[in-house]
Every structure is written in C-alpha cells, then in structure tokens.
Design goal:
Layout: E1 2-6, E2 16-22, E3 29-30, E4 35-40, E5 45-49, E6 54-58, E7 65-67, E8 71-76, H1 101-111, H2 115-124, H3 142-147, H4 175-190, E9 193-201, H5 203-220, H6 226-240, E10 247-249, E11 252-254, E12 261-263, E13 265-267, E14 270-272, E15 275-276, H7 284-299, H8 305-308, E16 313-317, E17 336-340, E18 344-349, E19 357-370, H9 376-391, H10 394-398
Parallel strand pairs: 12-16, 16-17
Antiparallel strand pairs: 1-8, 2-4, 2-7, 3-6, 4-5, 6-8, 9-19, 10-11, 12-15, 13-14, 17-19, 18-19
C-alpha cells in the first residue's frame, strides 16, 4: 500500500508554499512521524512528518512551488524494512555482527542528529561529538549546528588574489521575504505613519539588573533582560493611551482591553514577529521566558500561525545589531511600534547635580505611529511615559 505525501493546510490565508530541504533521500526508509521535508510559506517554515512508516519516493524536488493539497511524493508501506534500518539497540542472540569502531561512531552520530543537521555538519566540517543537541532525546538540530563554535573545526579560508571580473547572481525571493516586502510597502501606503524620538537614561535599569540578575536566574531559570522592562513600560503606557493599542478596521477604531505584544526576532530567513499574549497580566519572568521560547522556535522554524498573528503593539530591538537610530515601520493593522537602539555612554547633564556634565548609558527610542488614530500629543506623551518608567523602574512595581 502506498500513502501519498500531501501539502497540508497551514492556515486560512496560506495557499502556496515552497519546498525547502528534503530531510530524507529518495528510496530511504523512514519511520512514522519522522521529518520528511521543510515547507516554507510566507509566514512560517515547518517540517512535514511522515504519515506512515515505509520507503520514501520523492516526486517534487527542492525549491519547487506547490499549492495546498499537492502531492509531493509517497511512502510505500509494503516495502520491506532494510536491514540497516532495523533498530540496532535490539540484542541479537543468533549471530555476532563484526563492526569496526569507525562504523559504530558513524552510526551513533547519525542517530543523534537530524538528517539536515548531519548534512550541514558534513558541509561545514563540524564534529557532531562536540555539540550538545537541543532536540527531542538530545537530538542535534540545524540550529545547534549554526550556533556551535566551528571556528576550530573548519579549515582556514585560502587567500586569493583580487578577482579580475565582476560577477552577478540572482536568487528567487523566499515566500517569507516576499511577504515581508509586501507588508512593509503596504504599511507605508495605507497608514499616515509618523515617528517621534526621545532618549532614555538606562542607569537605574542596568544597576537593578546587576543587583538581582543572579537571584532572578536562580529562581526562574532565565536571564533578566531589557525586553521585560520595556514590555512592562509599554503596557503601562498603553493603559494610559489606549488608542496606541488600537487598530483601524473597516472605518472603525477597534480598541483592545489586553496587550498582545509582538516582538521582532531576526532569523536567517528574515524578520519574524511572534506574539507574547496578555503581557498586561504577566510577570517579568513570564515575559522573559515567553520571549526566549518564541525566539528559539523562530530560529528553528517551528513558529505556528497562532504564534504569529493577533499582536496589538510591537517592540523592535535594533540595538542588538548595533543600530544607533532608526524609524521602525508599522506592523499592520497595529497603530504603534517602539524601536529600541544601542546603549552608548554619552555626555549629559547630571540629573542629581544640575549644571554638571556626566557620562550616562543612553539609548534612543523611536515610536512610529499611525497619525490617523494617534495624535502627536498622545504619541509624544506615550513615549515620555515609557522613558519615565525606564528611568525610574520602581514605577513599574507600583503600577504608575
């Protein structure tokens, strides 16, 4: 009996996908629920599991465009399981198998890594023995390979003389990159977007983190980062200026009595914006844990449609890449996005000693907003409220 491999529905708004990397070879035996191929849509990338156990027959190759419901291959359930695929952990009492140490080591490496991770390790010259797996049962995944320090395992890049020609190459845009481009253009064309700026003194937050970071990590198992402070500050400001947390829908203003915070995360395939739900009811630790979980899912291409939709406000931290100043673009249909930037010591007036100049760790803040809903006064007041909460973080504990 042959079972077709069919592109499943990934969400109401997704009708086309692109096949990413096949994780198995044509004619290879797979177990039920083993990952077969990566599917890339304009919103998420995820692995398609095998519907049954059997031998895989691939009919559609990598990088092909497909529609929901298309058949891309099949699994032959009737095919006999090859001897090499039989569980090697089953003891044999009737025969003795003579294998070399090299063969055993190679098989162990293959079992503890996904097929894609194994291929990437071979291509990059990385030893799987030196990598701890983060997948189920300690399996090594693609993200483990990418995050490993492979500087010692790779050969030095040879230095060649300057090339005497200029090369040009073209690559097809991924569905995710196309969707990002479409939404950015849509945001600029459909909203009256304006940006206001301010700067914030990070001294008190930095000192508070230094004072409690070890105790916080010991208790909750997560680092106390800046994002939880800014998320809490935005929740406080959104309560005071709810129109910044609203959306314009069919000519009506839709207010939200909750804050689903979209957090921009950079991946190797582009920027994604997963959502932390109900941040107005979450603690610092819960916010940090949720952001870490979503960031890991994003980098492992495991985000779902539920993770990506429904945000009411966005925070984008370009400072992690060294950005000094930027004007963030709205994430429709949201009416506000806060851009964070690099912390840098700058000469400013000492607030405790007027007239005296001192060095302080300063960060520029940028709030882009939809001027159709948010007035300039409200936007500036919102940003000043965020600034006050960060410069005096005790306000967050008091709900001010």
């Amino acid at each position: 009996m042959t079972t077709p491999i069919i592109i499943p529905s990934l969400g109401e708004s997704i009708s086309e996908v692109v096949l990413g990397q096949w994780l198995v070879n044509d004619g290879e035996w797979v177990d039920r629920d083993a990952p077969l191929v990566e599917i890339e849509s304009d919103k998420v990338t995820q692995e398609l599991p095998s519907p049954v156990s059997g031998v895989v027959h691939i009919t559609v190759q990598n990088a092909s465009e497909c529609s929901i419901g298309d058949t891309i291959g099949s699994v032959d359930e009737a095919a006999p399981k090859p001897a090499a695929a039989i569980d090697e952990t089953t003891p044999s009492t009737s025969a003795t198998i003579d294998v070399t140490t090299e063969t055993v080591a190679s098989a162990a490496q293959t079992r503890k890594a996904t097929p894609l991770a194994h291929k990437m390790a071979n291509d990059m010259g990385v030893s799987l023995d030196s990598i701890e797996g983060s997948g189920p049962s300690g399996r090594i995944t693609k993200s483990d390979i990418l995050s490993s320090d492979s500087s010692e395992a790779t050969e030095p890049v040879p230095v060649h003389p300057a090339q005497q020609f200029r090369a040009i190459r073209r690559e097809k845009m991924s569905p995710l990159r196309k969707r990002i481009a479409q939404r950015l253009v849509e945001a600029q064309h459909s909203a009256a977007m304006l940006t206001t700026f301010n700067e914030v003194d990070m001294t008190n937050v930095i000192e508070l983190r230094k004072l409690h970071k070890e105790e916080f990590n010991d208790k909750y198992g997560i680092n106390l980062g800046f994002m939880s402070f800014f998320t809490k500050a935005c929740v406080s400001a959104l309560a005071a200026w709810p129109v910044v947390n609203a959306s314009l829908v069919d000519g009506e203003v839709e207010y939200h009595e909750y804050v689903d915070m979209s957090v921009a995360v950079g991946t190797d395939k582009g920027l994604v914006v997963p959502v932390v739900r109900n941040t107005e009811r979450k603690s610092f630790a819960e916010i940090e844990l949720n952001i870490k979980e979503l960031a890991l899912k994003a980098r492992e291409n495991k985000l779902t449609m539920d993770d990506m939709t429904g945000g009411t406000f966005t925070i984008s931290n370009g400072g992690v890449y060294g950005s000094m100043m930027s004007t963030p673009i709205l994430n429709p249909p949201q009416s506000g996005i806060l851009g964070l930037h690099r912390i840098q010591n700058r000469a400013v007036e000492d607030p405790s000693n007027p007239g005296q100049i001192t060095l302080r760790p300063m960060m520029y803040l940028a709030l882009s907003y939809d001027h159709r809903l948010v007035d300039g006064e409200g936007a500036v007041s919102f940003l000043v409220h965020v600034k006050n909460c960060i410069e005096d973080p005790q306000r967050l504990l008091l709900g001010l």
